[in-house]
Amino acid sequence: MKMLINVAERVVADALRGMADAHPELVVDVEHRVIVRRDAPVAGKVGLVSGGGSGHEPLHGGFVGPGMLDAACPGEVFTSPVPDQMVRAAAAVDSGAGVLFIVKNYTGDVLNFNMAAELAEDENIQVAKVLVRDDVAVEDSTHTAGRRGTGATLFVEKVAGAAAEEGAPLERVTALAQQVADSSRSFGVALGAPATPAKGSATFDLPAGELELGIGIHGEPGRERRRIMTSGEIADYTVDTLLADLRPGGPLLVLVNGMGATPLLELYGFNAEVQRVLRERRVAVARTLVGNYVTSLDMAGCSVTLCQADDELLRLWDAPVSTPGLRWGR
Amino acid sequence: MDAGFFRRWLTTAALAVEREADRLTELDSAIGDADHGSNMRRGTAAVTAALDKEGPATPGAVLLVAGRTLVSTVGGAAGPLFGTLLRRTGKALGDAERVGGEELRQALATGVEAVAQLGGAAPGDKTMLDALRPAVEALPDAAAAARAAARGAEATVPLRARKGRASYLGERSEGHMDPGAASATLLFEALAEVTADA
Question: How many domains does chain B have?
Fold first, then answer.
């Protein structure tokens, strides 16, 4: 697989150097792998820190800025960052109002963020955590690692970020983040497997004419393989799978997310089908976002995230945000 | 066994990881995300460098430095889990300048239990524990421990993963060796190797 890289070992460091050059409004510490908004710590403001493996850009580094994250910790490709990064990020953004760790539910992320929370508390930083686990493709039971954190992470980071920007205390920011996490569900479909720099080729074999339902964002195959389906058929399957689990009672926030290698032309066409199914099921939509936000390197495919919204949540969603990956208002 | 022995153990393990990195990554590409080899190689190379730089003077200190370094450099689940294994084993050894086989067995048993607690895995969940537990039981005979670890890793092949990223695959995780069990085996094979040379 051809890649626009120098050497596989330096992919993350090279990307961080490029980010530093493109975004002077961020402090990008290439050596310690922490991305922080330049005006941090903001007096009296709760600090929002997230992080995870690289390869999901713009998540998380691309969501650092006013109205969203205060800092992000990028790990190696598809590998959780280490506690040292998270502690450094927490120290950089803590104004005394405390820090919220937004953690996607993967064994590695959970273990490293837990270790980091203990270490940060040793440095007298008050730390709260919220776990994002929205992927309905994974059976949620004590006999598995539990549902994966995927597209809902964007909703959590945006809503909690807006609340923190308004000066909400740690307890309130955490409660809102938890509400969004609990009210969101995602499901993903792959038309092609991603290639990781370390492996240099596709992480699984997906023959022409087949697709993979229920994929995650780390190149792992999904829960079922089928003959290729049309955009409309994928929307029917995906939305019905989500609604069976979420059972929404009010208007939704909808994310139609590209996995990295699917053109926006196709994503918008897919969104038309997603909205059609939602109308057919008599589910109201309040806001829709379409684009590549929680990606999996060069995987072809898409995911849909639905979040049960309320007025306060929509107000925070609409609040200004100014990050490399998400920017509106103001 | 003194600090020198423990340093040889860990640097031998680092060489084994370097040698086997592609195989570990290949195993991980079947049921994970194809980076276990490169992540472990980064960590164990950092361990070798840290031991050279810090020159810990006791067996316990060697393992503490190594464990801390793994936590700080590997990432993923493997970093905290292998890091905890070595740190807790090192802690259990205290500041003794020399330790015997039985003391090492007891200390490693403590370390393995800490890993089980942290990861929440049970025997047969297709994790590194399936190699670690039988290996520790076979100590203080290091060669027997290495064989037990290898058998334990081999026995993960038909299992369905119930922890970690491989668990997302359900029955599709069957038929592949757990990469964590494979790298845990390298640790015990290195122990057998330096014991035979001692």
Answer: 1
